[in-house]
Amino acid sequence: xxxxxxxxxxxxxxxxxxxxxxxxxxxxxxxxxxxxxxxxxxxxxxxxxxxxxxxxxxxxxxxxxxxxxxxxxxxxxxxxxxxxxxxxxxxxxxxxxxxxxxxxxxxxxxxxxxxxxxxxxxxxxxxxxxxxxxxxxxxxxxxxxxxxxxxxxxxxxxxxxxxxxxxxxxxxxxxxxxxxxxxxxxxxxxxxxxxxxxxxxxxxxxxxxxxxxxxxxxxxxxxxxxxxxxxxxxxxxxxxxxxxxxxxxxxxxxxxxxxxxxxxxxx
Length: 267
Known about the structure:
This protein is about 35% helix and about 25% strand. It is α/β, with parallel strands linked by helices. The strands form four sheets. The protein has an eight-stranded mixed β-sheet with strand order 6-5-4-9-12-14-15-16, with helices on both faces.
């Protein structure tokens, strides 16, 4: 097994379990303990994991992020959304990902898509993001080209915002974009808590041929500070906990709802 393949497998195992030890790597990849330790050291040097005695843990920043970015009781919902969204992505496309825990989950799922891995050295997917944590997750995927916007780092969310981020997004086009939000009220629209983040998210939506809000059903009916323009939205990808009433209200507001059971829109 080539080194790049080993590193990808280690990151896949870490994404699934949150932690891993050298013995697991040796058994799973059939390599020597010395090789396993060197691979962990390489990933640690790239800030993709945190080394521990005998193994490693996920290199998470959740301890100092606001509630939107912290681990919640809705992880299974986010995984459901992430798998649905990642499954919509085809090879040789350009995908935009905003910051957030759900979009991070989408990035992980995209990284694990073996059908997107092509010939050695061939780029099969381009991901554009303003979230440095998402960029770092995909950095070791040789088949994925990662473009990170410029901008000022928001120390609370690890997103790049401001004029530089907007200028870089304004010069490209996206095939599809997935945008995380704080809240979604059918009569008002999608909302986030920061006006600079909102400006970048809106531009990502406007520069994309297809753009999707990604949020678990608990965010429907909530409120936040800044309202996003809904004009160019393709729809909302959410989990199966959404109610029939919520589906109908969103469809009537012109926001088609996409879940694993199908698409619902206004008749």
